[in-house]
What does this fold into?
Amino acid sequence: MNKASLSNAGHTSRPVVIRRKAKLISAVLFSAALIGSLVTASAPGVAADSDETIAVSLATMLRASRAVISKNQKHINDANIGDKGLSTAVVVAKAKENYKKATGTDVDSIDPASLHGKLIKAQLAAIAKVMDNAQGTINKKGVSLKGFLPAVFARLVAEGFTANVSGQATLKLTAPKSYVRNRSNRPDAWENNVIESMFKSADHPKNKHVAEAANVKGKKAFRVILPEYYGKSCLSCHGGPKGERDITGGKKEGGTLGELGGAISVAIFK
Ligand code: HEC
It folds into this structure.
């Protein structure tokens, strides 16, 4: 479905053990399983998506939905308008549209019974809940700065998703340690290592994500982390001069255009 799906990094091989006593039965069963798997593999769209594909898909949906908030930031901050027309249904529909533009895949075509389908559904439910809860804030007349920012939206969606799928997967917006504003976004040791030793390295290709089997708080997982860079629109808050207050009251990071500013981190537990 996208470039990452071409990689096999998420697949694990399942060794087949044949005991001597049950050799014949096992051989028959093995043949049947083999034929079954060949049939399955040859049917288009049936082979399960790899963990890497699923993780990149979840990060893509996070970006697709956050883009709706970014695009409407001025509108959200307009004190003269009450109802902003950014209902849950509107935001979810626009997020799906952005996702399709980015991947070429209609998110509703993902098999709802598959792990990919279940996790995407849980993410869409998290997006819906964040937007349900935000209506009162964003539709308030007479207030310009409402604190409903793309990064806040993304954190709330990531937290909601992680709660919805408890124990199956986690989604997180993080940043280089020196740039983290919200302590709940701090990178863990694995994320910090990728950020500092790979993403910040001059030889790391821009936008390239890193995927690896690695633990999360001692639990076995397949992890994927995608870099995010400061664009022009970010620098009014994250740019210079360092330490000066931005419009939200936070301290500016002193970041520069194109610099690594954050990362989206996904874990799928094994
Ligand atoms: C209006 C000011 C503002 C703008 C513009 C802005 N941010 Fe932020 N950003 C914030 C605030 C405030 C937080 C803390 C959010 C929270 O509480 O979770 C934050 C958090 C983040 C985080 C999460 C890590 C952390 O520090 O907690 C990342 C990553 C990030 N911003 C990247 C960006 C990028 C990339 C852009 C541009 C596309 C951008 N921001 C634009 C204010 C801003």
About this structure: The pocket of heme C is lined by residues 149, 151-152, 155, 173, 175, 179-182, 185, 228, 230-231, 233-234, 236-238, 246-248, 250, 261-262 (CB under 6 Å). The radius of gyration is 22 Å.
